[in-house]
Amino acid sequence: MKTYVIGAGSDLGVHIDGAHLGPVQLMNDLKGFYKGESTSLMQDENIIKSRNLSDRRKNEYEIDKFNTKLYKMILEKAKDNYFPITIGGDHSVAVASALASAKAHENIGIIWFDAHTDYNTFDTTVSGNIHGLPLAAITGYKNHELRYFYDGNTIQPSKAVVVGARSIDDWEKDNVKYSGITVFTTEDIKQKGVEAVVEEAFKIAGEKTKGIHISFDLDLIDPEIAPGVSVPEFDGITEEEAMKINEEIMKHLDQVVSYDLVEFNPLRDIGRKTEQIAINLLAQIIKAAENKGKFTNKKY
């Protein structure tokens, strides 16, 4: 099927610089083998970015402006039966990509592969980094300010699954506890195995839905292996486990309607280790999606 790669070059959601350069680097790497349609959206260079950790609404207006444009771009292609692949950028860009898929397909689930649950609100965030709020916004838990551009149904929390969490802010824990989302930790992956955890995630996110949005944050991987992220969390998964997750996703590609790969920060990478992992993940998904002929508009 037709793929559409979008480079979402924004690091406005985090006080650390560099993730906005991730899509530039990765899309340049993709030129060696990707022949499909692609485009890039970069944050305004004239923005004076807030990095103040006491500011709980850092760059809120600028993020909303960026995501409004990104949402419209992705929605147009999704409605034309493309398979959108969004390369971030920090994880705040997923508000646009996930909700574009939700609008195009009406009723979808979401699997959030991440070291963090990203379920803070403006009241509970400690850092004020908006990349810690997107999943709550996507599932309709407060944070309506982050989806002003959106007029559809949010994704049901009961159809949202986090895989690989190992760092949840203290005030965020209550948000997660009472939200209805499902969380599998890194320890669950270690104990149960990738296949079992991902299989269960697809069962939950795919129950009576018309597709699933995948959002893969590279901080899922241990920073000793993939150091090129803005907010690393130790005791993560291995490169082999990350690739295995991707393989499991590809087994369910008839359900997947869109895919994100986010948080690559080339300024923090060492020996291009994270870059190579990111390219391998993208190459797998692009090849699988292009070889998949019939899953668009499938009814479940």
Distance between the termini: 19 Å
Q: Can you tell me the residue ranges where pLDDT is under 50 for at least 5 consecutive residues?
A: 294-300
- CATH architecture type: 3-Layer(aba) Sandwich
- Quick one: how many beta strands? 8
Percent strand: 15-25%
Rg from Cα: 17 Å
CATH class: Alpha Beta
Overall residue-averaged pLDDT value: 96
Order of helices and strands: EHEHEHEHEHEHHEHEH
Shape designation = globular
CATH fold name, please?
Arginase, Chain A
User: What strand order characterises the main sheet?
Assistant: 2-1-3-8-7-4-5-6
Quick overview:
The protein has about 300 residues and is α/β, with parallel strands linked by helices.
Descriptive terms for the model:
300 residues, alpha/beta, 8-stranded parallel sheet, disordered C terminus
